[in-house]
Amino acid sequence: MTPFSADENLTRWITAIRRHIHAFPELSFQEIETSKYICARLEELGISFIGEIAKTGITADLGKSDGKPACIALRADMDALPIEEKTGLPFSSKNQGVMHACGHDGHIAILLGAASLLSKIDLPGKVRLIFQPAEESGGGAGKMIQAGVLEGVRAIVSGHIDRHFKVGQIAVQPGIICAYTDEFQIEINGPGGHAGKPHETIDTVVIACSLVASLQSLVSREIDPVYPSVLSVGKIRGGSAPNVIAEKTMLEGTIRCTDESVRQQMIHGMTRICRGIHTMYGAEIAIRFTEGYPPVVNDEEVSGTARLAARKIVGEHGVLKLPHPSMGGEDFSFFLKEVPGCFVRLGAMKEGVNAAAHSSQFDFDERVLALGACFMAQAALDYLLTC
């Protein structure tokens, strides 16, 4: 069979979808209008669906099961971020303080494009479309799984728009490709007082600064450098006035790694350093960890199918390997704990735009939309032909 391709009409349709969703972004588990819009597009394609799964999620099945369960699922995430957009795009966010700054608007358009392509052929099995809420916050994948969206599914494929790769490049890699995403909160308490009389106080701001510097030694001096790991303090909150020594200072941040033993080493090391800083300064220090997403681990067999599908769409030269795992997190990992699957990177580098994901100026080359739709459809069809 000839590989999938997107004609001009489909490309325009997909692009219009992306731009509409980009203009009306919604936060995790608040994707009510986004969900309605997706359902309207599925109706336009003549595809039946089930909505309001895990509040705003949607599933739709394509193909004839002939008594067999669904064979493969394709997934897209739906939520935006609490960021004020500064791109200047003509379809910029109309919802103040909310922006699609991670490409999920594109992911929705890609999956709807794949649905359009797949709906026009006689499928040798069943494909389940999964539109998932709350990837950025709240673990929507887990909620969708609890609601039963993987019942009968034997494999799953998804992807992420990536500005590090050029349009026409798809990165496919078996094994670990995304990190653990644990978060931590450290509370430092001590008797505050007058800024002119520091000898009568315990300065929690000074202690916080010392703690930030000390924690960095974990990665630089205690973790084996062959294991990628990151410890970042992203938030410091303390003090009430310039002439008052703070009674309490809070630190919040994240640790990222790809190996469970390193993860435990970092957790125990941070706890030990907090005890040491307590002994040094005399302040009360409490550290709490919040378990985040597990790592994304691509299945060898499904990754092989995805790689062959990618070759059909972008050619051998366009299929890349990931040289190392990303330290980013992705709740697609919860799906992969249940069924084998593959998560790919879709090249979307845009000339003149150097803004990272989760930036107020993030944007991508929309040519990725048609290519992504063709890849997703091809991966599903190829899996069905071999499963």
Question: Topology, pairings included?
Answer:
Elements: H1 8-23, H2 32-44, E1 50-53, E2 57-62, E3 72-77, H3 104-119, E4 127-132, H4 140-146, E5 155-162, E6 170-171, E7 175-176, E8 180-189, E9 193-194, H5 204-222, E10 229-238, E11 244-245, E12 248-257, H6 260-281, E13 284-290, E14 297-298, H7 300-314, E15 319-320, H8 332-336, E16 341-347, H9 367-386
Parallel strand pairs: 3-4, 3-5, 5-16, 6-15
Antiparallel strand pairs: 1-2, 2-4, 6-16, 7-14, 8-12, 8-13, 9-11, 10-12
Short summary of the structure?
The chain is an alpha/beta fold and 387 residues long.
The ordered string of helix (H) and strand (E) elements is: HHEEEHEHEEEEEHEEEHEEHEHEH
Widest sheet: strand order? Answer: 1-2-4-3-5-16-6-15
Oligomer: single chain
CATH class of the largest domain: Alpha Beta
Q: The CATH topology of the largest domain is what? A: Aminopeptidase
Q: What global shape is seen?
A: elongated
Radius of gyration (Å): 23 Å
- Assign the CATH superfamily of the largest domain: Zn peptidases
Q: Helix segment count? A: 9
The average pLDDT is 96
Give the strand content: 15-25%
**What is the helix content?**
25-40%
Poorly predicted runs are none
The biggest sheet amounts to: 8 strands, mixed
**How many structural units, i.e. domains?**
2
Number of strands: 16
End-to-end Cα distance, whole Å, is 17 Å
What CATH architecture of the largest domain would you give? 3-Layer(aba) Sandwich
Describe the structure.
- The longest helix has 22 residues.
- This protein has 2 domains: about 260 residues, 3-Layer(aba) Sandwich (Aminopeptidase); about 110 residues, Alpha-Beta Plaits (2-Layer Sandwich), CATH 3.30.70.
- It is α/β, with parallel strands linked by helices and about 375 residues long.
- The model has no long low-confidence stretch (mean pLDDT about 95).
- The protein has 9 helices and 16 strands.
